[in-house]
Design a protein that fits this description.
Layout lengths: L3 H7 L5 E3 L15 E3 L2 H13 L1
Parallel strand pairs: 1-2
Amino acid sequence: MLKDIEAGKKVGARGVLVRTGYGANIVRTDMPAFIAEDVLEAVQWILRDRRG
């Protein structure tokens, strides 16, 4: 089954993982471009990244 981060990479997108606590003990082998502590931090990173 194709995962969200893996799917994004296949189309050239950069993924953001938001720490929700769910799956915290799962070892990720396909890491995203950014790991955010919450949705606000993810949005701030996306906006900064878009502006260059």
